[in-house]
Amino acid sequence: MSKETLPMIGRLLGHANHQSTARYAHLDDEHLLDAAQQVGDAVMVLLACL
């Protein structure tokens, strides 16, 4: 959860295919909640501009 993309992490690990990296990647609830909050905040800003 270091803000790096799965393809970048996969290359660092020597994976030929990003699907190999995705198989082992796990998201915890805190990061999912943070991402949902960021999306919600962005939508509120856009709606406020209407």
TrEMBL record:
GO terms for molecular function: DNA binding. Keywords: DNA recombination. InterPro entries: DNA_brk_join_enz, Integrase-like_cat_sf. One of its GO terms (biological process) is DNA recombination. This is Integrase.
